[in-house]
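We modelled the chain as a single entity of 454 amino acids. Its sequence is:
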Amino acid sequence: MMLDIFLIEKIDENFYQKFNDKKFIDELMEINNFEPKKNKTLFVPKTYNKEGNDSLIVGIEGCSNVLDYLTLGSKIRKKIHKNYDVKFISEVDKLDLYSIELGFEIASYEFDKFITDKSEKFTINVIDSQSTKDIKDKLNSIFWVRDMVNFPALIKTPEFFIEQVEELIKDLEISLEVKDKNWLEQNNFGGVLGVASGSAKEPKFLIGEYNKSAKKQIALIGKGVLFDSGGLSLKSPSGMETMKTDMAGAATAWGVIALLAKHNVDVGLKVYTPLVENMPSGTSIRPGDVLTMRNSKTIEVLNTDAEGRLIMADALAYASEQSPDIICDVATLTGSSYVALGVEIGALFSNNDELSKAFLKSNVNNYEKYHPLPLEHESKKLIKSDIADMKNTGGSFGGAITAALLLEEFVNKIDWIHLDIAGPARSRDNDPLTPRGGTGFGVLGLYNFFKSIV
């Protein structure tokens, strides 16, 4: 069946030309109190469409930015409860049809792998669109990240993560290396080994590479704590409920590299993702222990729940040794980041103001929102240790900043961007654009940035 979706901002003669009974349309609009304002919709039976198709009239008056159009598209999708080929029709100037279609497709996401009584599925295809492949490629990465975040930690072992990565990149020109615990020991990854020491699941370290002959080479590190109990600095029961999310950075990194490869973007990208569980046991690291990192710097661990920065530090140091042009990292690193910015905005840190501005410019008026936070070097005194080069926590205040300052110690003065996505990586609301659970936040932000610097 065909569904025509008419996107309108006013009722005029051009609008009435789509239908064969003006009086009926007027009555239908009056009965349903319809006006062409954003998010207002009205179904019209196919009997009254001159093409013989079912119709959905959608108001767009008042839509002024990308988020408005994305939200509109997502709400349109949720109105449809039949199998349809869908066609968007509009004569409005400056209409952001791409964002409407993107929102429409994003709203198709469901994670029902563990639900016995599944809801009815509908096959809904957008036709006559110039953007279908581009949108489908983006959704493939975003939805893959969402799925990975949403899988329970019982299933989400390092081996499972590797299998899913292999499936994601199997038809793409991306190489994959899987390093095991022995390799980590031989190569002095003290942070990764320390965090993983309490779990029965041995750590892994994944390296992916795309387009190594490109002129511009970038390293991307993603935090892969598959479950975070807090270790011996144990979280509260409620604090653990969503800690399967703590590998969102690692999943995001793989979603980004897959998207770059699908679009043949002429930039080189090397992804590094340490995979660990942070668990309490007789073999766990203890508060007061000192770890020696990949670059030989030492960290006193005062709180085993500040573990993400430990595995990220090792990965950053290792990536720095390859001398990329830019190092980026993405992590659900600190609750402090969303105390400062709220749960929908990613925190951006950088050691290069121009690089920070370039990242923000590449994502102006876009699906994802970012805001810079200061890399305030005066705060380094907060992570100074009495017995080691630094300690892994700076106390209650400025937590996102002190975590970023620790990471900066491992980038070897290379231009660097750090994204703390602890807030937006997981949705707390059941919104059509971002249903409760993993969001895939970071995929488009990093993709837009990498594409912009070619």
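As a brief sanity check on the tokenised model: The mean pLDDT is 97. Residues 132-150 form the longest helix (19 residues).
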